[in-house]
Amino acid sequence: MDRQERERRTEAARKACERLAAADVTAVALTWVDTSGVTRVKAVPLPRLAHAAAWGVGASPVFDAFLLDDSIVSGRFAGGPVGDLRLYPDLDRLAVLTALPGWAWAPADRYDQDGEPHPLDARHLARREVGRLAAEGFSVRASFEVEWAASVGGGDEFVPACAGPAYGMTRLTERSGYLLDVVRALTAAGVPVEQIHPEYAAGQYEISVAADDPVGAADTAVLVRETIRAVSLHHGLRATFAPKVLADGVGNGGHVHLSLWRDGANLMAGGDGPYGLTAFGEAFAAGILARLPALLAVGAPSVASYLRLIPSHWAGAFACWGLENREAAMRFVTGSAGERSVAANLEIKCFDAAANPYLVLAAVLAAGRAGLADGGTLPEPVSVDPVTLGGSVTPLPSSLGVALAAFEADGVLKEALGEPVVDTVAAVRRGEIALFEGAPPEEIAARTRWKY
Ligand code: GLU
Ligand code: MG
After folding, report:
1. Dist CA 187 CA 192 (whole Å)
2. Which pLDDT score is estimated for 265?
3. What angle do CA 282, 210, 194 make, to 5 degrees?
4. Which residues 6+ apart lie within 8 Å of 432 measured at CB?
5. By the 8 A CB rule, do 342 and 350 touch?
6. DSSP 95
7. CA-based Rg of the chain, rounded to a whole angstrom?
C-alpha cells in the first residue's frame, strides 16, 4: 500500500462520508469472516472513516484461530496473543444499514502493518483466485442462496416463527411484514433481491439475490445475513443460519451458484457437452466435483454441518451431479429455453452458511481452475435420488474429520490457498471436533444454533 493509494483512499472516504452523513450515519461497521465462519467486527465513527480507509483499524490476528464458541486453538500460523493487523474498509462496497439506523457497513481487507495482505485473509484469497482465472481469460459469476430459520423471542430454545405448511402461503401471511422489511432493508443496501419464500423446515425462509463477481457475492452473503438478523430482532425474532437448527429434519443450506464466463459468453450454455455445457464449463465443473470431499472442510466446516448433510434432505449428500437433481451435491441448472445463455449455472448444494463465503469461493475457484488445467470431463449425470441406486454413487464424507483428511491431502487446494490457510483450517476443525466429542446430535445442534 503506497502513499498514493492511501491518498486515493482518504479522498474516497471523504466523498463517502458526505453521502453517509446525509443518510444520518454515525458509525461504520467493518467486518471480516473468521475460519469458523463467524463474522467479526470493529467499528469506527464517521469522522474516523478516512483514517481507517488510509491506515486501517487495528485487529488481532488471533481471530483466525477462534472456534465457534470463541475459544482459541493455537495453530502454527495463528492463535497467539501477539501481533496486529490492519482492517481496511472496502469503500466501493459501503452500504447504509437501514435495519440498524445510524449504521453503515463495509467489508474489510486485512493487511499487516507493512501494508502486505495477511496470508489468512479470506477476502484477499478469493480476490487472488479471481485474478488467477482472469489471467487465463475467465471470469465467474456467483451467488449464495441464504436459508435461515426464525425463532420467536430471544430465548435459546428454538420456537418456530411460523406454523403454516412448508412453502405455504400461510407462512408468508403469518410473517408478511417481516419478510417485506427484509426485502426493503436489502434493497436499501443495494442488494438486488431476486426471490424470497418460506422453506421446508420449521420457521425456515430463503432469499436469493442476483449473481455478482465472486468477492461481491461473498460480501453480499455477509450483508444479507446480518441484515436478516437485524430485521428479525426488530420483529421480536431471532434468526439462525446454522446448518442444523434442530437435530431432526431439514437444515439450512448455503448453496453456491456459479457460472464461468469467457469473452462475454456463459460457458455453462451453448456448448456440445452434456445439457449444453461447453468443454471449458464441463472442465471447470469436473474440477469442483472431483474435489467436493476436500472442499467440504471449507464449505461444510462445522460438526453440525454433518447433521445436515444426509441423504433425502435436499442437502446434496452424494458426490455426483445431475440436471436439476436436488439430491446431487452438484445440481446443474440450465434455466428456461431462451434464457440459457444467461441463466445456466452450477449449484453446489452440499455447503452451508457456517462456511466463510470468501474461503469457499477461493477454494471452489481453485478447484475449478485445476479442472480447466487438466481438461477434466464429468462422469455420467445422475437423474434420480442417488440413495435409490444402492451404493453405486459415492456418498460425500459423513463427518468433518473425514472431510478434513481429504482437504489436507489435496495438493491443488494446498497450493492455491497456501500452507498457513490449510494448517489453520485444520487446527480450527480439529478444535471443533474435540469440542463436540461424544456430544449427541441434539446437543451439537443446540450449541451451534446461535453462533451463525
Ligand atoms: N434446506 C436444504 C438444505 O439443507 C435445501 C433445500 C433447497 O433445495 O432449497 O440444503
Ligand atoms: Mg432452499
Report:
1. 6
2. 98
3. 120
4. 36, 67, 68, 302, 303, 400
5. no
6. E
7. 21
> Angle 400-408/419-435 helices, nearest 10 degrees?
160
Q: What's the angle, vertex CA 39, arms to CA 34 and CA 42, rounded to 5?
A: 100
Q: Which of 143, 195, 240, 314 to mutate to test the pocket of ligand 1 (most atoms within 8 A of CB)?
A: 314
Same fold, 3-118 and 129-448: no
Angle made by CA atoms 396, 129, 394, in degrees to the nearest 5: 10
Q: What pLDDT digit, counting tens, does each position of 332-384 carry?
A: 999 999 999 999 999 999 999 999 999 999 999 999 999 999 999 999 999 99
Q: Which amino acid is at 321?
A: W
Measured from the Cα of 352, ligand 1's closest atom is 10
User: Which residues does residue 331 pair with via DSSP β-bridges, in sequence order?
Assistant: 322, 347
Is there an atom of ligand 1 within 6 Å of 357 CB?
no
The tens digit of pLDDT for each residue in 99-125 reads 999 999 999 999 999 999 999 999 999
What are the residue ranges spanned by the domains of the chain?
Answer: 3-118, 129-448
Topology of the domain covering 3-118: Ubiquitin-like (UB roll) (3.10.20)
Question: Phi then psi for 347, rounded to 5 degrees?
Answer: -115, 120
**Integer Cα distance of 292 and 19 in angstroms:** 43
Look up cell 497456501; give the residue: 418
DSSP 8-state class, residue 350: S
Which overall architecture, per CATH, does domain 129-448 show?
2-Layer Sandwich (3.30)
Q: In angstroms, what is the span from residue 92 Cα to ligand 2's centroid? A: 30
Is the overall model pTM greater than 0.90, yes or no? yes
Indicate whether residue 197 lines ligand 1 (CB < 6 A). no
Tell me how crowded residue 127 is: count the other CB atoms within 10 A of its CB. 20
